[in-house]
Amino acid sequence: MTAAIEIQGLHKSFGPLEVLRGIDFSISPGEVVCVIGPSGSGKSTLLRCANLLEQPTAGRVLVSGVDITDPDVDIDRVRRRIGMVYQQFNLFPHLNVLKNLTVAQRKVLKRGQAEADRVARENLARVGLADKERSFPAQLSGGQQQRVAIARALAMGPELMLFDEPTSALDPELVGDVLRVMRGLADDGMTMMVVTHEMGFARDVADRVVFMDGGVVVEEGAPEEVLGNPRQARTRSFLARVI
Ligand code: ADP
Ligand code: MG
């Protein structure tokens, strides 16, 4: 089976700073992989390289078998297949919720207004916000804004979703709603790569947990192995600090 995404020998430097020092792993269609690790270990850079928001210094990224680091590949077409959700939501503040979900569908996918609206409403319902389409981002809680951001990514019909600490900016009482939506996506078979500090989510939802430190994958495996019985000292000391 072709991997949904395959990362091969990925290196990324910013000037003299080598942030990713040889990353190899792949995610199968329908698999949920949680990436954990200390601040500064390169998790966000890995996600950004995975959809070429950052250009890798070396290595390859294959999305459904297509090498997206090949200069001949139309990166905009590839990026459309990958949804990204950020810690800070990144909604368009001057547009209402419905418009937030339809702009890229119209511009990038060239969908007509009626279809874009229909897909938007379908995905707002999916994240439990069918009644908020006329609201502006500032009128919503952080958790609602993040669910809008998830719905906006879903409206593009991605085959892979990348999440970069989607609940880290939220008040604690709002985290659960967002995690529930993400769990629903996982149950529906979405392929997901989730950078998170939510160890409960990783334990319950991930098929695989990847622990990164210092720009390398130190350990990966089933959640009960990596979180419950880590083999590496670095994993153990990280978990002792966060759990
Ligand atoms: P994490 O998400 O695990 O906290 P990051 O991938 O954000 O780690 O950052 C890893 C390292 O790369 C940090 O030392 C950070 O300062 C550095 N870094 C990230 N992006 C840039 C950039 N655009 N320019 C220079 N250094 C960067
Ligand atoms: Mg980060």
Automatic annotation (TrEMBL):
CDD domains: ABC_HisP_GlnQ. The keyword Endoplasmic reticulum does not apply. Its EC number is 7.4.2.1. GO terms for molecular function: ATP binding; ATP hydrolysis activity; ATPase-coupled polar amino acid-transporter activity. It is found in: Cell membrane. PANTHER family: AMINO ACID IMPORT ATP-BINDING PROTEIN (PTHR43166), GLUTAMATE_ASPARTATE IMPORT ATP-BINDING PROTEIN GLTL (PTHR43166:SF9). This is ABC-type polar-amino-acid transporter. The lineage of its organism: Bacteria, Bacillati, Actinomycetota, Actinomycetes, Pseudonocardiales.
